[in-house]
Amino acid sequence: MAFDQQYYQRYYLDPRTAVTSRAEMRRRAQLITACTHYVGLPVQRILEVGCGIGLLRAPLLKALPRAEYTGLEVSDYLCQRYGWRKGSIVDFRARGRFELVVCYDVMQYLTAAEARQGIANIGRLCRGALYFGALTREDWEHNCDQRLTDPSVHLRPASWYRRELSRAFRPFGAGFWIRLDAPLVTWELDTAG
């Protein structure tokens, strides 16, 4: 997959073919930060895996003004244009861990082995909460607009992602996962598991 200027123009910048909008991503950032506040997670460091054109960066930092943001991206084009850190979640290493990791619409571009490695690596990098989303087989068949969604992906069932994520995280709901050893209290009926 070539994550070049043409790819981002089609899926993110052209309003006729964009798969998301700035408004939708602002709402997503509000959800993420509301969950971190609700569970009492003080966020000092944020890692966004596959940050793309950075639609979540500004709203996350607005809601978490004391946080430091790291955008990780495989696209040479985006790293040059936005100054993101070049790398893949499969083998990314960082000094220290992150209280909040955001990994949205990335894993479907990786093979099963790469996605498994990437999720395990997120487990090592995250010490608090994860916001996670990936296009699943069920989403492709029932939920997404296939005219706007990139079909060049590896479709796996949602149960596959849940199984892999549950090795290091417990589900909180709405795409939010809490690290198993994080000292955060969540009420039973607040959780999605």
Largest sheet: 7 strands, mixed
Strand content: 15-25%
Unreliable stretches (pLDDT < 50, length at least 5) are none
Helix content: 25-40%
| Global geometry | globular
CATH class: Alpha Beta
SSE blueprint and pairings:
Layout: H1 5-13, H2 22-38, E1 45-49, H3 57-63, E2 68-73, H4 76-82, E3 85-86, E4 98-104, H5 112-125, E5 126-133, H6 137-142, H7 158-165, E6 169-173, E7 176-179
Parallel strand pairs: 1-2, 1-4, 2-3, 4-5
Antiparallel strand pairs: 5-7, 6-7
Helix pairs in contact: 2-3
Based on the model shown, name its key terms.
single chain, alpha/beta, Rossmann fold, 7-stranded mixed β-sheet, about 20% strand
Describe the 3D structure.
- The chain has 193 residues and is α/β, with parallel strands linked by helices.
- It has a single domain (42-190), classed as Rossmann fold (3-Layer(aba) Sandwich).
- Helix content is 35%, strand content 19%.
- The protein has 7 helices and 7 strands.
- The mean pLDDT is 95.
Q: How would you summarize this macromolecular structure in one to three sentences?
A:
Strands 3-2-1-4-5-7-6 form a 7-stranded mixed beta sheet. The mean pLDDT is 95.
